[in-house]
Write a structure and sequence with these properties.
It contains 10 helices and 18 strands. It is α/β, with parallel strands linked by helices and 425 residues long. Strands 3-4-6-5-7-10-8-9 form an 8-stranded mixed β-sheet, with helices on both faces. The chain is globular, with a radius of gyration of 25 Å.
Length: 425
């Protein structure tokens, strides 16, 4: 499973079983306890743990305004390349932390959460080297996990929530997630929201379904696609890894990116749920046209996607971040924030009053409200390229109207009494 080269772990390029994957994660955590934290967010239908490895400096401490990012792999059990890529990404992070200044700087300022498999039950029944088909795609209860999240655009019912889906739903509000991607196979492209049309009567072929942060999502998608070897270069038509090209060459995606609904509409998808419910910027990354390729191809897939997997997450350090607080410097959790012109997708401050929003360079206005206790606030901000702007916002309490009226009435009564006293004297 895992060897040591000069005291450094060396992960084999092979398909790791669920047991081998868990053993690897435990080994990494034991070897690098200062920068890793291993935890489970729940169990699959058949009782497999849904493991997550978190990586970062001072991993067990809260560090002010340090954002969290995440990758989720193997959502469809027979789409396995992402699962292996995430294991090798973990290896790159932990072995490079002490010697690579870029990796070190990133993990010093970010917490990375990596879930190699969301669907371990489906993986167990998938067929190696079967590039197409759906055997293993669904969970053990026969649900497609990427059609299983609450549909928040129209509020339509999806299937009963699966155990794995519920585990993700419960996980998201526990951390200050800002940027995310889920990794798939069967195509070669970066897919961004919305996955579903806002018009309930719109169907396939109705064009893109544009969200308020369309510009940012396109930037993020291009960050990934242009950092790969072939996604952008071939417009998503050939990953150049198999002897036979399993990509659908009848479809071409400029620079290897697409709006989700424009490709095909999906209700109950995970990326729309992340964005609408929690303001998390999530992409669906299709990174291999063959769903379960031969193990001999995994090293090539890693070389093709290594830079993209790293570069994409570094984009979390753009836009604006800050702390919402009251006049006494107490953090305000749960304040609602909106970017002027993008009001249809508000977001909230996290624990410790922290907020984050990914924005491209430009001038923006942040609008903040927090219950009826505080006055609404607005701040103009400037986003510069290559950095994140910090903008803390102090909320001022709303003064009681009834109290003000009482004070005025009392003052008038006092003046009348003074006048009467003068006449008596």
């Amino acid at each position: 499973l895992l060897g040591l080269v000069g005291g450094v772990m060396c992960l084999e390029f092979k398909h790791h079983s669920n047991t081998e994957m868990a053993q690897y994660l435990v080994s990494v955590n034991q070897t690098y306890p200062d920068i890793t934290h291993l935890y489970s967010i729940g169990q699959s239908v058949l009782g497999e743990e849904l493991w997550v490895l978190a990586l970062g400096k001072d991993i067990h401490q809260h560090v002010e305004l340090r954002p969290s990012v995440k990758y989720v792999g193997n959502m469809h059990g027979n789409e396995v390349v992402g699962r292996e890529m995430l294991l090798h990404l973990i290896e790159m992070y932990v072995t490079g932390y002490s010697s690579n200044k870029t990796i070190q700087q990133f993990l010093n300022t970010t917490v990375v959460h990596i879930m190699p498999t969301m669907n371990p039950d489906g993986y167990n029944i998938s067929i190696p080297e079967l590039c197409n088909g759906t055997i293993g795609r669904y969970n053990a209860a026969n649900y497609d996990l990427n059609r299983n999240f609450p549909e928040l655009i129209h509020g339509r019912m999806t299937d009963p929530i699966a155990e794995e889906t519920q585990a993700i739903i419960d996980w998201l509000p526990q951390y200050n997630f800002v940027l995310s991607a889920n990794l798939h196979g069967g195509a070669l492209l970066a897919n961004y929201p919305y996955d579903l049309y806002l018009d309930p009567l719109a169907g396939p072929g109705s064009g893109p379904s544009i969200c308020p942060d369309d510009d940012t999502f396109k930037f993020l998608s291009l960050t990934y696609s242009k950092s790969t070897a072939h996604m952008a270069a071939t417009n998503g038509t050939d990953d150049k890894t198999q002897a036979i090209n399993f990509c659908d060459t009848s479809e071409s995606f400029t620079d290897g990116i697409t709006n989700g609904a424009e490709w095909y509409p999906v209700a109950g998808g995970m990326q729309d749920y992340n964005y609408i419910k929690h303001g998390i910027f999530e992409l669906t990354l299709e990174i291999a046209c063959c769903k379960f390729p031969a193990a001999s191809t995994l090293e090539t897939y890693w070389k093709d996607n290594r830079d993209a997997l790293f570069n994409y997450l570094t984009a979390v350090h753009m836009g604006v971040k800050g702390i919402i607080k009251d006049e006494n410097n107490n953090p305000v959790e749960g304040a609602e924030l909106k970017i002027k012109g993008r009001e249809s997708r508000p977001f909230n401050s996290f624990k410790h009053g922290e907020y984050y929003r990914l924005l491209l360079p430009g001038n923006y206005t942040i609008q903040v409200t927090a219950t009826n206790t505080y006055k609404a606030a607005a701040e103009d901000i400037v986003i510069e390229e290559g950095s994140v702007t910090r903008q803390d916002i102090t909320l001022v309490p709303v003064k009681s109207t009834s109290g003000a009226t009482t004070t005025i009435s009392y003052s008038v009564l006092t003046l009348l009494l003074m006048v009467l006293n003068q006449h008596i004297l």
